[in-house]
């Protein structure tokens, strides 16, 4: 199966590398990553094409800049989706995942979202957005299940 893995940076990448480790060699992987994050690329164990995407949002940005950057990220993500043609896209929720996952859903590609393990009582902003779009929405803490009935708890990645 062809899977597109969304790498964020830091903890998001660590969690996704763990997911890929659990899935193993039986799949073909492509990686969508923030273009300014070279460290995440060094963590990849199973080779596959990599696609750099502009980071849609940083901590100190005005809304008009965020909107423009998100549109650019969406265009770059659509190019990656068309080139690799995955059956599913898998993410733990960095901001770069939002436009990619929404586009994937519109193209009929399955969206698998794993809420980052750092979110115990409330979803991240990416999680709140992608909760509506994900075909499979996993959380790493049972406390989130009462507020998000569509979510599935299968334990922690670590």
CATH topology: Rossmann fold
Order of helices and strands: EHEHEHEHEHEE
Overall pLDDT:
92
Strand content: 15-25%
Round the Cα radius of gyration to an integer and report it: 15 Å
Q: Got a strand count?
A: 7
Poorly predicted residue ranges:
none
Helix content: 25-40%
CATH architecture: 3-Layer(aba) Sandwich
Overall number of domains: 1
Our count of helices gives 5
- The secondary structure category is alpha/beta
Report strand order across the widest sheet. Answer: 3-2-1-4-5-6-7
CATH class (first level) name? Alpha Beta
The CATH superfamily label reads Glycogen Phosphorylase B
Biggest beta sheet attributes: 7 strands, parallel
The rounded distance between the terminal residues' Cα atoms is 24 Å
What characteristic shape results from the CA principal axes?
A: globular
Features:
158 residues, alpha/beta, seven-stranded parallel β-sheet, Rossmann fold
Notes on the structure:
The structure is a single chain. 35% of the residues lie in helices and 20% in strands. The protein is an alpha/beta fold. It has a single domain, classed as 3-Layer(aba) Sandwich (Rossmann fold), CATH 3.40.50.2000. Helix 2 links the parallel strand 2 (28-34) and strand 3.
Helices, strands, pairings?
Layout: E1 2-6, H1 11-23, E2 28-34, H2 39-42, E3 50-53, H3 63-84, E4 88-91, H4 97-106, E5 110-114, H5 125-130, E6 136-139, E7 152-153
């Amino acid at each position: 199966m062809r899977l597109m893995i969304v790498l964020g940076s830091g903890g998001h990448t660590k969690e996704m590398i763990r997911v890929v480790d659990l899935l193993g060699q039986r799949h073909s992987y492509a990686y969508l990553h923030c273009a300014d994050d070279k460290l995440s690329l060094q963590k990849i164990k199973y080779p596959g094409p990599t696609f750099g995407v502009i980071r849609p949002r940083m901590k100190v940005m005005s809304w008009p800049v965020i909107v423009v950057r998100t549109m650019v990220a969406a265009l770059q993500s659509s190019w990656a989706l068309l080139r690799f043609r995955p059956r599913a896209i898998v993410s733990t929720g960095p901001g770069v995942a939002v436009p990619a996952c929404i586009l994937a859903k519109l193209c009929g590609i399955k969206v698998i979202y794993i809420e980052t393990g750092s979110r115990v009582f409330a979803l991240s902003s990416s999680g709140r957005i992608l909760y509506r779009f994900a075909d499979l929405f996993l959380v790493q803490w049972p406390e989130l299940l009462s507020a998000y009935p569509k979510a599935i708890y299968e334990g922690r990645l670590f």
